[in-house]
Amino acid sequence: MEIRYGAHPNDVKHYDTQKLREHFLAENMMVPDQISAVYSHYDRVIAGGAVPINNPLTLQTYEALKAQYFLERREIGILNVGEAGTVTVDGQSFTLKHKECLYVGKGSKEVVFASNHADQPAQYYFVSTPAHTQFPITHFAQEDAQPMDLGTLENANQRTVYKYIHEKGIKSCQLVMGLTELKTGSIWNTMPSHVHDRRMEVYFYFKVAEDARVFHFMGEPTQTRHLLVGNHQAVISPPWSIHSGAGTSNYSFIWAMGGENYDYTDMDLLKTENLR
């Protein structure tokens, strides 16, 4: 598990491309037959991926957690961006098809990831946040996630937002998680932009073509920077940073938040003409 420390916005003003990527981009999230994870000091969020092919993969604890098992003091949201698979929690099995979500609450001791077929593996993306209250294990199909259509084709931002873990969906302690799909011909997300100083966010991009990239914009509203992001890569977005993106073609991404505020709509909107 990689450890990523927090960075002051005054310091980030002086980062070059390499240093920005070192601090905020997680490039190797989906590694065959491995669980990969990144621990961010922003709200103690852990983001990771599990790609079981030849054998099931068990989510182990890490030295940095100082816990007997991974979910001793944490909760986790799991979203499958691959083919069908099974997640087993303390002996109880759940089948997750493409773009289906499983929430597992604090106190569950064993989480095992498996694929139904080795030649068509599941690809599990997960985000975990600290938790002080236990909520029940909950499985959502994509159609359960309150799809919300936003944007227009004229503005190249026609998209559908699926909210899985939030105050009116799957109950959690502080984790908020969902998925956004851009329509063909649309490339922009989260414009006009915003910040929410009460919580951080992680963006995981998928369905990005091999020869395509997403320009992920970050930084203070008047000190914007960008990261070039490929398929199955994630961006750690600090609470003080904007988080918008534009791709060389349409794409999808999973957003997840942890922090002080559980309200999905809590954001400080910014006028595009004021960005610098």
Question: How would the blueprint of this fold be written?
Answer:
Layout: E1 2-4, H1 9-12, H2 17-24, E2 25-26, E3 35-40, E4 46-50, E5 57-58, E6 74-80, E7 85-89, E8 92-96, E9 101-104, E10 111-115, E11 124-130, E12 138-140, E13 148-150, E14 159-165, E15 176-182, E16 188-189, E17 194-195, E18 199-206, E19 214-220, E20 223-229, E21 233-237, E22 244-247, E23 252-259, E24 268-269
Parallel strand pairs: 1-3
Antiparallel strand pairs: 2-21, 3-4, 4-11, 5-10, 6-9, 6-11, 7-8, 7-10, 9-12, 13-14, 14-15, 15-23, 16-22, 17-24, 18-21, 18-23, 19-20, 19-22
Describe the structure.
- This protein has 276 residues and is mainly beta.
- It has one domain (2-274): Jelly Rolls.
- The chain is built from two helices and 24 strands.
- The strands form five sheets. A seven-stranded mixed beta sheet has the order 1-3-4-11-6-9-12, with no helix packed on it. Strands 2-21-18-23-15-14-13 form a seven-stranded antiparallel beta sheet.
- β13 and β14 form a beta hairpin.
- The longest helix has 8 residues, at 17-24.
- The protein is globular and about 55 Å long.
- The two termini are 35 Å apart.
- The model has no long low-confidence stretch (mean pLDDT 96).
What is the averaged pLDDT score? 96
CATH topology name: Jelly Rolls
CATH class equals Mainly Beta
Write down the overall geometry. globular
Rg: 18 Å
* N-to-C span: 35 Å
**SS-based structural class?**
mainly beta
β content, as a range? 35-45%
CATH homologous superfamily grouping = Jelly Rolls
Helix content: under 10%
Main beta sheet strand tally, sense and closure: 7 strands, mixed
